[in-house]
Amino acid sequence: MDLSIPTAVGVTPKCRHCGHDLTLKLIDLGLSPVANDYVDPANYMKAEPFYPLETFVCRECRLVQTRDLLAASEIFRADYAYFSSHSTSWLEHASSYVDNMAGRFKLGPASRHVEIASNDGYLLQYSIKKGINCLGVEPCESVALAARDKGIETRIAFFGRAYADELRGQGWSADLITANNVLAHVPDINDFVGGVKILLAPEGVATFEVQHLLTLMQRHQFDTIYHEHFSYLSLMAGQRVFAAAGLRVFDVELSETHGGSIRFFVCHAQASHPESPNVADVLGRERAYGLHDDAIYIAWNESVKETKRSLLDLLTALKRDNKKVVGYGAPAKGVTLLNYCGVRTDFLDFTVDRAPSKQGRYMPGVRIPILPPEAIVEARPDYVLILPWNIKNEIKTQMAEIRSWGGRFIVPVPKATIED
User: Fold this and answer.
1) What is the model's pLDDT at position 69?
2) In whole angstroms, what is the distance from residue 187 CA to residue 165 CA?
3) Res. 9: pLDDT tops 60
4) What is the pTM of this model?
């Protein structure tokens, strides 16, 4: 099957890292709204913008990426609604990270820790408890102000080379730079990584945690593709991006966060950190799956369509049997899933979310109402569709009460399944 990109749009898109033509399409998820643009009741009757949601594979550097359509400032606005601290499992992950980094790299009161995209201070709060000098850089005012309320020094700014120069001039040469789930969110990936190069102390370490392209594809996690994710990283692509900035990947770790993540440990090219065997191991896994070859991307494109069909088949059968189905969560991945699959209130009566910033609003595009979690207990549904499936075990624990009336859970990917 030929998935080369048609030229009807006028200009063949270019790779945001190496500049080569993007001629291999990974997936076309149709038109979709911006994932975190939740709809207020006052705007319910107003139209919202939809944009093509497509991803491409660079045949030169293997960076998977969306087409450039929206500026980051249009997505990560002052009223950005994602607050990291609403997930207890993510807080535990952050606390463990700080413990491990402080021990491994001997961080203490003389050290400087900068987190880029520090959100509401969910992670730096643990570094502060250890007496480490901390600074957060966060472009979204809503979450940055929440961090400041916790006593965490937070600058409201987009990070890149220019801002890194400014911070370095203020004495913020960093022993540890943390960038969790942000590298995928920056349209100019070279400027962002170049800024890390500027800000990092000579023997400093920067860690970048992103969803791993390998697990995204192996587990059919197409719903983690949305407009605010500009890039999708493998180690083979990441090494090239970092090397171009004069940085070196000396270790990697794989974890189950966000459905399967990779953490890059990066230092200056000439720094003394020895290379871990983990690097060769993960590169071997990626090559064994075929990320270096076009064929695997073409096959994956077809498999995503089957994932969609399985979810629609299940929901259709349940509704024909007069079962009540609701959702749990209103994450960005849920916006992609529901819009691509065409799941609206004809399938889901409502969804719920623990974040007060989302309650009383509607899911973008499909306009499914978002209620507080207690609405599930009041409605006593037969099934709960877990939209943030990456924390399904946490949600099952929180919603254990549904089993008292025979309620069950639905997990939509990699194939829609019913779970107790």
Assistant:
1) 65
2) 20
3) no
4) 0.85
Separation CA 36–CA 195 (nearest Å): 26
Specify the DSSP class assigned to residue 2. -
Q: Is the pLDDT of residue 140 over 90?
A: no
**If we measure between CA atoms, which residue out of 353, 385, 355 comes closest to residue 371?**
353
Candidates 3.40.50.300, 3.40.50.720, 3.30.420.10, 3.40.50.150; CATH matching 84-294: 3.40.50.150
Pairwise CA distance, residues 199 & 331, whole Å: 32
Instruction: List the domain boundaries for the chain.
Output: 84-294, 309-419
Question: If one looks up domain 309-419 in CATH, what number appears?
Answer: 3.40.50.720
Q: Counting beta carbons within 10 angstroms of the beta carbon of residue 232, is it exposed (0 to 12), middle (13 to 18) or buried (19 or more)?
A: buried
- Two tokens, residue 286: 């990626």
Token pair 């990947």 in the structure block, residue: 249
Measured distance CA(401)–CA(407) in Å, rounded: 8
Tokens of 234: 């493998």
Q: Is the dihedral of CA 258, 262, 267, 272 positive or negative?
A: positive
148 close to 29: Cβ distance less than 8 angstroms: no
Amino acid at 146: A
- Same topology, domains 84-294 and 309-419? Answer is yes
